[in-house]
Amino acid sequence: MFMYLQTEKLGDTGRVMMQGEYESLKAMHAVSPSLVPEPYGWGQYDDDPETYFLLAEFRDVGEQPPHPVNFTRRLAEMHIKSVSPTGKFGFHITTCHSKLPQITDCWEDSWAVLYRKQLAHMIKLDEEKHGPWPEFKIVCQLVLDKVIPRLLEPLQSGGRSIKPCLVHGNLWDENCAADMVTGEPFIFDAGSFYAHNEYEIGNWRAVRHRLSATRYVKNYLRNFPPSAPKHEWDDRNLLYSLRFDLGTAILIPSEQRQIVKENMTILCKKFFPNEYAALQNGLIGLPLRANPSLRRAATYSEDQQVDEEEEDETQFEENDEEDIEEETASKLLDMDAKDDWDDQTTVVDEDQQPRSRL
């Protein structure tokens, strides 16, 4: 019998990664043994305390990703058959998205609450990695405080419900394959927890993944139809993709952060256009006047020549109307004053209705 050995020389991060993946594989293997390599154990090297290992069943990697029909059927079966030990969303231990610890070591009755914690955590890690970006912070906080409750709370209200499903947690092209011996699909490199099953498919939205092909998504939905309200499936899919794309932005710095901002903006404009517009207007008020370099980046193209000192004096001599307008926008959601990402959920006003995409 062949075994697979994985090691990480990352100190405590490596410990969290190896323990989290072991527990993830163990939980999934208990539900779908043929879909997941059997984990045998994890631990720390005696002669190198900074290195941790995972030992699991060896399976020879074939086609990646595997054929969509059998693969999506088996994945949906695992989602459907799995049962949360507490009946809640979460997990009994911290798991990771690659090297990034996730907020999984908790149990929540509300999926909206847990997903908000997860996304807020990733936003915080992104800001620590790349630094503050005021325009990005506005859409981040609007998504956390308004869009998440608007799209996810209806899943568990009005007589509707969703079951916590065991998910792989980071399922993309390179974390799934066809077994070279049996031809059967299998999944690995997991960061599992109990979530809304549609969360799993959020990682397939990015065009960089071959799993984004229509045949994978459609075949999955044939086996596990969209949750009600069904007409908001695509909006939820876009919302879930933010969590994975932020992870990519942190791990592989590129243009991914800009893509996340654009996708957040789509959701904000569609469901909360007035709040988004007010906050954007507030962004070019006092905080930017007090920061000339930020004002230039947000307002002017590179070839425009402006005398900044003269402009600053003019701006500060303007009447109070603009200040009042900026203050009103800031108070609307009390977002500009927040320095840290809040992990608590905010309930949407009951009379808030979805609006058309601008």
UniProtKB/TrEMBL annotation:
Major enzyme class: transferase
One GO molecular-function entry: protein-ribulosamine 3-kinase activity
Biased composition (Acidic residues): 304-327, 339-351
Reaction(s) the record says it catalyses: N(6)-D-ribulosyl-L-lysyl-[protein] + ATP = N(6)-(3-O-phospho-D-ribulosyl)-L-lysyl-[protein] + ADP + H(+)
Disordered: region residues: 297-358
The enzyme's E.C. designation: 2.7.1.172
Superkingdom field: Eukaryota
InterPro entries associated with the record: Fructo-/Ketosamine-3-kinase (IPR016477), Kinase-like_dom_sf (IPR011009)
Gene3D superfamilies: 3.90.1200.10
Pfam families reported for this sequence: Fructosamin_kin
Listed name of the protein: protein-ribulosamine 3-kinase
